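quick q for whoever's on today - can somebody do inverse folding on this one?? i tried earlier but teh output was garbage lol. tokens:
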């Protein structure tokens, strides 16, 4: 039956996911109000090691951290799936896209507090769009999304609970890394939290956590009206075999 939807967008959703998640994170970083809890560990680690070598760009730090995350995933679920290697390949692509956006946008914070908050919302909106796209494709996911999906599947736990626990682990990891690496908690000033950040965490991190879910849900409903997620390459779909794509799409709007 002929529809008004953009047909066979399965692979396009994956491309949109990569591009817009990286763009959103780069914009939120320039807002200088604190990045999301999922992105925070990478930013903390990068701040600590960026002076060691020019090799450790933000994007490189990101895919190395995702690689460690995937190793931990294998230990937690007590199995290895060859698709985890594809997830790491996606992480590498994402890392270089993140570096590209940082190069294009620059790393200096936006000027003016009002502009920073506006750009944080824009960055969060871009990231939410990318996440909604990721969960509407059969293509490999990045480590954070894959961790939630695999743990939920392995232990038959509800995906919303797994998502909440994973988010909290990322947040605790970020705070712990900042405390252990920098040892400067005495320099934290509550009076500056509304216009600055402390090792990439701040009021913006809390705001992002609150608004992330409804924005993803809105984008998801809009995407479902405009796109048909069938693959352009059916043979590749059979090889990758991500039969959980529809389940991920249905759950993420109520979970994120």
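ok took a stab at it. sequence:
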């Amino acid at each position: 039956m002929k529809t008004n939807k953009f047909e066979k967008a399965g692979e396009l959703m994956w491309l949109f996911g990569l591009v817009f998640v990286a763009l959103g994170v780069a914009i939120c970083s320039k807002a200088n109000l604190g990045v999301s809890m999922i992105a925070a560990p990478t930013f903390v680690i990068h701040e600590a090691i960026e002076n060691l070598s020019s090799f450790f760009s933000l994007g490189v730090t990101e895919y190395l951290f995702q690689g460690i995350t995937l190793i931990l995933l294998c230990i937690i679920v007590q199995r290895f799936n060859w698709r985890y290697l594809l997830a790491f390949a996606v992480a590498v692509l994402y890392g270089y896209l993140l570096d590209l956006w940082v190069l294009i946008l620059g790393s200096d914070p936006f000027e003016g507090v009002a502009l920073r908050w506006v750009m944080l919302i824009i960055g969060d909106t871009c990231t939410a769009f990318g996440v909604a796209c990721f969960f509407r494709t059969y293509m490999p996911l990045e480590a954070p999304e894959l961790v939630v999906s695999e743990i939920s599947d392995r232990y038959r736990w509800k995906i919303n609970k797994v998502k909440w626990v994973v988010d909290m682990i990322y947040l605790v990891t970020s705070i712990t890394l900042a405390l252990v690496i920098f040892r400067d908690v005495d320099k934290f000033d509550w009076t500056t939290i509304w216009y600055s950040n402390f090792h990439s965490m701040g009021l913006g991190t809390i705001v992002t956590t609150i608004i992330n879910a409804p924005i993803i849900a809105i984008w998801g409903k809009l995407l479902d009206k405009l796109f048909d997620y069938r693959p352009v390459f059916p043979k590749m779909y059979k090889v990758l075999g991500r039969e959980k794509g529809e389940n991920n799409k249905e759950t993420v709007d109520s979970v994120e």
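fwiw Residues 213 and 256 are 5 Å apart (CA to CA). also DSSP finds ten helices and no strands in the chain. so keep that in mind when u check it
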